[in-house]
Amino acid sequence: MSDKYDVIVIGAGPGGYVAAIKAAQLGLKTACVESWTAEDGKQVLGGTCLNVGCIPSKALLEVSHKFEETAHHYAEQGIMVKDVQMDVAKMMERKAGIVKQLTGGIAGLFKANGVTAIQGHGKLLANRKVEVTANDGKTTTYEAENVIIATGSKPIEIPPAPMTEGYITDSEGALEFTEVPKRLGIIGAGVIGLELGSVWARLGAEVTILEAQDSFLPAVDQQIAKDALKQFQKQGLNIVLGGRVTGAEVKRKLVNVTYEDAKGKQELKVDKLIVAVGRRPYTDNLLSEDSGVKMDERGFIFVDENCKTEAPGVWAVGDVVRGPMLAHKASEEGVMVAERIAGHKPQVNYDCIPNVIYTAPEVAWVGKTEEQLKAEGEAYKVGTFPFAANGRAMAANAASGMVKIIADEKTDRILGFHVVGPQASEIVAQGVIAMEFGSSAEDLALTCFAHPTLSESVHEAALAVNGGAIHIANRRKKK
Fold first, then answer.
1. What is the residue range of the signal peptide feature (predicted)?
2. Which of 29, 257, 387, 466 would bridge with 268, disulfide CB 3.0–4.6 Å?
């Protein structure tokens, strides 16, 4: 038996590394176990998000957006650029550099806060013991007062489209293409499929996205989703709704995809196919049978509202538990658990977790959609304001989309805040803060916003909730 710790965290992604740092800051003796290993044999911290998820995909989205702007939209603004070229290798090199800098930064934070990093695969045994298997197969068992499971998730594979090197890949492989595919197929029009589709379409690929569901982005407020769909289609993304993939095989250096839609059996030939149908909890060889931790049939670990499992002193956070699979949600849970272990009583406000799709325009939202409120029978009122009427958006050549605020009919309290448009990922934070403080639409309407800014659209949407928008015609109230 090796050292005993107050807290051992299994997994060093956004849930795990944040929990470990917070626990150490609270004076708890903390270790963090991570199995991810670089080619040089060194431990890699940061999990999916930093290495093959949020961060590298944003690096590619930023570059591809700048390329598309330069190649197609600068002339109308008076900037004349000829023969714009894309160096994919350089783009990938820059992405790798950003990832290295950030993951190295976590190692520095562990050091500064006194967190012990343990390399190897962690497995929870009975009585809060953690068995760590190193790369050479050696096992060491550690003991802890508390264990936090933060092992994250991995892409779901589907039988009709098995991974085939060089042809059929998941979201991780799609971040490593060495050249722009001529024709690209994507299975799944969710967040990951849309973001990856955007990257490669901007760089010149002909992109077809096959979505099995009949509605586009069903979790998003449908007024916002329809606006976004229109814009993505205008950009050349061919999004097929109700397209259920039945098979995919490589023939003559092409992927032949067969699918069924409302018109019957269809066929699609592409150079590369990305499977982006979601993610599943990563719980492989994680729990011994007597660990006391229970999972559901989909592999999610059962926890209460404070992320406690059924085993005393064992907690779980992030993608392995219920709720949205979002890095920031995992981090909030990690901080809450560390604080609770230290004897404090914080809680995560699950009603105020923002969601973002980093396409252009961006899509972001927090709280309830109109569809949810209708289904719940709640009386509500809505205010919207288009970026087309916003001076700053027009000046930035990004005047598409809108801000939408939904408030309670009687109390005027903000229930949902939805944005499709420029910098929606930043603008949604205003909605999160407002809702966190229990604001009414009137509170935002009475707040002074700087002019000219994109945020003025929030002000106007809040005014519109009660029929008082200044820069668009208000809907007439029904008598």
1. none
2. 257
